[in-house]
Amino acid sequence: MLSSTISANIEESLLQGVNKVNCTSSLDINEPSLNSPVPIFSILNDTGDILSNCKSIIIPENNELIKMYKSMVLLSIMDKILYESQRQGRISFYMTNEGEEAAQIGSAAGLHVNDLVYAQYREAGVLLFRGYTPEKFMNQCFGNVDDLGKGKQMPVHYGSKNHNFVTLSSPLTTQLPQAVGSAYSFKRLKINRCTIVYFGEGAASEGDAHAAFNFASTLDCPIIFFCRNNGYAISTPANEQYRGDGIVSRGPGYGIATIRVDGNDILAVYNAIIKAREYVMNNTRPLILEAMTYRRGHHSTSDDSTAYRSKDEIKEWLDKNPIIRFKRLLEKNNLWNDQNEVEYANETKKQLMQSFTIASKKNKPNWREMFNDVYHEIPDNLLEQMNSLEDHISKYSDHYPKE
Amino acid sequence: MHTAINKYSLVCNATKNMLCGCFKRRSSHFVYHPERISSELGKTSKKNMYQAINSAMDLVLSKDPNSVVFGEDVGFGGVFRCTSGLRERYGEDRVFNTPLCEQGIVGFGIGLAVAGTTAIAEIQFADYMFPALDQLVNEAAKYRYRSGNLFDCGKLTVRTPCSAVGHGGLYHSQSPESFYAHSPGLKIVMPRSAQTAKGLLLSCVRDPNPCIFFEPKIMYRLAVDDVPDDDYELPLGKADVLIEGKDITLIGWGTQVHVLLEVAEIANKDFGISCEVIDLVTILPWDKQTVTKSVKKTGRAIVSHEAPLTGGFGAEISASIQEDCFLHLESPIRRVTGYDTPFPHVFEQFYLPNKWKCLQAIKELINY
């Protein structure tokens, strides 16, 4: 047994890995439950009223409010049309945005148009708000000659250079470290350009999320990590995905600031994004923004979510519909009414159906397109393979789609 | 994942190699064949491979203000010294350490390239690049294709040390080029010398496609050439015919080129066999034309690489040769490669496709 005790004086630590830290003679286990959950910032209640204790919030101009609302409705109508068209076998696949319209449109409205967006796959609303037309969405879903992606990817893998929206890929979370790299590039160029990267709470379990958080923090990158915590990764509920306090709880471990916001409250998301953008650009630091929301639709057209969640649960969230909540606010301020709603919805459906018909009739790209854009130039091996397919098709043309 | 002790012991031993010629002789399984001086490229200086690579990056950083170099331990010069002096010259925002995370390094590099920055990423050992496989195969390789050419990451080059070093064991010796060769969209390059390393690295950096640049680590200090001081680029996708011959074609890349050059000399001197030696240089997309032209002439071919036999890139080359040169062949195509085992530590001399194994194969094919 030790005959003397060592005094636990506070000294400048020689340890490289920690800041100035106290020593203690008390051997305690630091239980995570001692930290209280991070509160959720919200502005609108379910009846569309602004909470009385909200201070210094920004409310967009009336025309901007209407643009935001119309974008939500447009997104939801486009979703219905494309979802149904997949069910009828017109397109091969689709993913709806139902329930997450506020998170998407609210964040898009708070960003600058030249801010670079890296998306996961449920952010069509961000692109829509930036002016990517429904026709373009449909061209992509059909993979026709006018698809900017030239028919290479499955439906919903959108991208647009003109809208600063990097083309998505199916692997989850790969976009996170990439977004950090772009943020570092913009920081060095000293241009006022922010990077935002969207992902789900399930994606946050991937190693790339860790990589991205740690790189962004250690390399001081001005980036907003926008987590859409929608409760499910396909069928796996969030409580089987992590045991901490959601995704905001990752922040302190990486030395990253956080905001948690009600993702179904478009004004809260809008304000949170403006504040987050200001923070990351002024401090040249990353920020994790966790939007608490609910994926009301199925994961994709390949999924039936009633197999793993109750209809009651879905119904409960239907009452918290972010579109209705926002509509109530607009109605109370005489910016929108039922007649506007009917007119806008009818006109939108009509236009979207027209776009759909046009997109569905366009040809597919020429099969030779298959060999383009693998490299900047077509190397000899690909030319050889293209010629061999050409020769084959000339002999077996009946077995291939006509151009 | 990998211990610092292992890394640094390799570096220290490499230093020993420089200091003690007799040790070098015993530890390396090949004789380095220095490059000839090319007068076209102006003034030259004696440089080893790491210095040549350093010189290439120095040129990139000095000419392109929107270029960066990064990776694990890169700031202080890198464990193999390839980045030494660069942070001091170009600042810590352009030459910097990253956290220890290969998938992060490659993903970060892709994002830099997407935003228009020239990104030179270092993965400390090719053996440790597998956590980045997803970023390389699913992301970097497919960026241009999947976006219909709206976005690309052609400004990304990933440098990484590879291949046998005498005492690297399982995790400091691998030659994993064939894993990446199955990913259309990537360019994969492996230099054989200090002189080619500089010119090829400059080409990779400026090529509008993402490139993986494998650096045979045993040559960092051992390979000394007259390296041009100025900027020069060597063509990607083009093989080099180093010795012309008429009886048999020997194909290799990286360190193995030197094994083949020595074997060709022995075969010629002792047995009067005339070997044509080809350095493939670029693994993807590879120069099939040069290879098939040569085999049509000689009628025999050996492909030799350090990586395991099954699924190695030699299989791809052999298949193409039989398809394109069938009626010209005088014997089967032979692969002389590492075995289908992990890279062994104390058995390295038995594992490697050394000159004696290559010589035996040559004799067998000539007498087939």
Automatic annotation (TrEMBL), chain A:
Name-wise, this protein is 2-oxoisovalerate dehydrogenase subunit alpha
Recorded hits in PANTHER family, A to Z, give: 2-OXOISOVALERATE DEHYDROGENASE SUBUNIT ALPHA, MITOCHONDRIAL (PTHR43380:SF1)
In the Enzyme Commission scheme, what number(s) does this protein have?
A: 1.2.4.4
What organism does the record attribute this protein to? Answer: Acyrthosiphon pisum (Pea aphid)
Q: Which cofactor does it need?
A: thiamine diphosphate
Q: Which reaction does it catalyse?
A: N(6)-[(R)-lipoyl]-L-lysyl-[protein] + 3-methyl-2-oxobutanoate + H(+) = N(6)-[(R)-S(8)-2-methylpropanoyldihydrolipoyl]-L-lysyl-[protein] + CO2
Q: Name one Pfam family in it.
A: E1_dh
What is an example of a GO molecular function annotated in this UniProt entry? Answer: branched-chain 2-oxo acid dehydrogenase activity
UniProtKB/TrEMBL annotation, chain B:
Coiled-coil regions, chain positions: none
Origin, by domain of life?
Eukaryota
Q: Which residues form the Transketolase-like pyrimidine-binding domain?
A: 47-222
Cross-referenced InterPro entries, in alphabetical order? Answer: THDP-binding (IPR029061), Transketo_C/PFOR_II (IPR009014), Transketolase-like_Pyr-bd (IPR005475), Transketolase_C (IPR033248)
Q: Which GO terms describe its molecular function?
A: branched-chain 2-oxo acid dehydrogenase activity
Provide a GO biological process annotation.
Answer: branched-chain amino acid catabolic process
- Keywords in alphabetical order, please: Mitochondrion, Oxidoreductase, Transit peptide
> EC?
1.2.4.4
**Subcellular localization:** Mitochondrion matrix
Q: Which CDD domains does the record associate with it?
A: TPP_PYR_E1-PDHc-beta_like (cd07036)
GO cellular component terms, A-Z: mitochondrial matrix
Predominant location: mitochondrion
* Catalytic function, reaction form: N(6)-[(R)-lipoyl]-L-lysyl-[protein] + 3-methyl-2-oxobutanoate + H(+) = N(6)-[(R)-S(8)-2-methylpropanoyldihydrolipoyl]-L-lysyl-[protein] + CO2
What is the required cofactor set for this protein?
thiamine diphosphate
The record's section on Pfam families has:
Transket_pyr, Transketolase_C
Role, per record: Together with BCKDHA forms the heterotetrameric E1 subunit of the mitochondrial branched-chain alpha-ketoacid dehydrogenase (BCKD) complex. The BCKD complex catalyzes the multi-step oxidative decarboxylation of alpha-ketoacids derived from the branched-chain amino-acids valine, leucine and isoleucine producing CO2 and acyl-CoA which is subsequently utilized to produce energy. The E1 subunit catalyzes the first step with the decarboxylation of the alpha-ketoacid forming an enzyme-product intermediate.
Summary of subunit composition and partner proteins: Heterotetramer of 2 alpha/BCKDHA and 2 beta chains/BCKDHB that forms the branched-chain alpha-keto acid decarboxylase (E1) component of the BCKD complex. The branched-chain alpha-ketoacid dehydrogenase is a large complex composed of three major building blocks E1, E2 and E3. It is organized around E2, a 24-meric cubic core composed of DBT, to which are associated 6 to 12 copies of E1, and approximately 6 copies of the dehydrogenase E3, a DLD dimer.
Q: What is this protein called?
A: 2-oxoisovalerate dehydrogenase subunit beta, mitochondrial
